[in-house]
Amino acid sequence: MSANVGHWMGLFLAVVLIALILILVLPLTGGLLYSLLVNTIVGFIVIFIVNAIFGLGIKYDLLVLIFVAIFGLLAVCILIILNLLGVDFKNKSLRNQR
Question: Rounded to an integer, what distance in angstroms lies between the CA atom of residue 43 and that of residue 65?
């Protein structure tokens, strides 16, 4: 378990570092791109913190990361609600369900 947490923590720190570099490079004009970038960064930070503090068990798979990267805080709220309702994002093929 600690190896997976280390890999995800490294990925998380890399994403945060890239985002911080982009924030410094982008002019602070308050444009749409800047707002979307901030929303994405805040979404990643919030889902990580909420998952760590409350232990919701939300897996950091590719679907969740893309969803949060596109929709930001809205995606985090939706993922928390789905997790509380018991929806799990496991990869199940149709062959296993028959």
Answer: 10
- For residues 43 and 37, is the Cβ–Cβ distance under 8 A? no
Structural domain total, the chain: 1
| Residue 71: alpha-carbon gap to chain centroid | 10
Q: Are 67 and 79 in contact (CB under 8 A)?
A: yes
35 in a structural domain: yes
Q: How far apart are CA 71 and CA 66, in angstroms?
A: 9
Tell me the pLDDT tens digit for each residue of 73-83. 888 888 888 88
The whole model's pTM is what?
A: 0.59
> Which amino acid appears at position 44 of this protein?
F
Interatomic CA distance for residues 23 and 37, integer angstroms: 8
